[in-house]
Amino acid sequence: MVRCFLIHTVCPVSALGAGESRLLYSRLFGPDEGIFSDRERGLSPEERRLVQKERVAVVARQVRSAVSLSREASARVLGETVPGEEALALQEADSGVVRLRAGDPFSEEMSALWLGVQSLGFTLVCEPHENLLLAESTLRNLARHCLEHLHMLGQGSEVLLRSNRVDALLSRLLPHGQLLFLNHRFAQALEKEVAAYMAK
């Protein structure tokens, strides 16, 4: 099962410090057992929300570090992408997996799959037994739809204003945090449904 999906920055942004990452969107799935320790289950709803927010921020920082290391190691220079070239940007995206040990930040061990597209990071946090190839395919599909339909690489990105569209994408491509095995016909039908919804 996927525990959470994040969209965040992975490059320095003028308003942030050198090591910081700005969280643009987050969605948590599933029961709280893997997220909260026994001690934290007695917290108030507001305190739990703050604990979740901090844990998601920790994941975003760890992914940002992994993306930075990957880009330094490849010595590849990032070029500017103009609207309409989202597919090319996605093709050139950095990707990887970060193992999140138990207690750092979740009470159970997790895997964070990430995709670094220009200054944006897309991350899926999965339980360790999850099929990582299927998770990567789902992550790339989610990132492609977000980039194409929300114009996230252009000026004035709409992700903060259109979180309901990201929610709709997740409900179709990752229902309740469950990865879907898709045959060709079902994948085409899903593509048409998503494209029709996003065109509204």
From TrEMBL:
<dbReference type="GO" id="GO:0005770">
    <property type="term" value="C:late endosome"/>
</dbReference>
<dbReference type="GO" id="GO:0016197">
    <property type="term" value="P:endosomal transport"/>
</dbReference>
<protein>
    <recommendedName>
        <fullName>AP-5 complex subunit sigma-1</fullName>
    </recommendedName>
</protein>
<dbReference type="GO" id="GO:0005764">
    <property type="term" value="C:lysosome"/>
</dbReference>
<dbReference type="Pfam" id="PF15001">
    <property type="entry name" value="AP-5_subunit_s1"/>
</dbReference>
<dbReference type="GO" id="GO:0000724">
    <property type="term" value="P:double-strand break repair via homologous recombination"/>
</dbReference>
<dbReference type="GO" id="GO:0005829">
    <property type="term" value="C:cytosol"/>
</dbReference>
<dbReference type="GO" id="GO:0030119">
    <property type="term" value="C:AP-type membrane coat adaptor complex"/>
</dbReference>
<dbReference type="InterPro" id="IPR029392">
    <property type="entry name" value="AP-5_subunit_s1"/>
</dbReference>
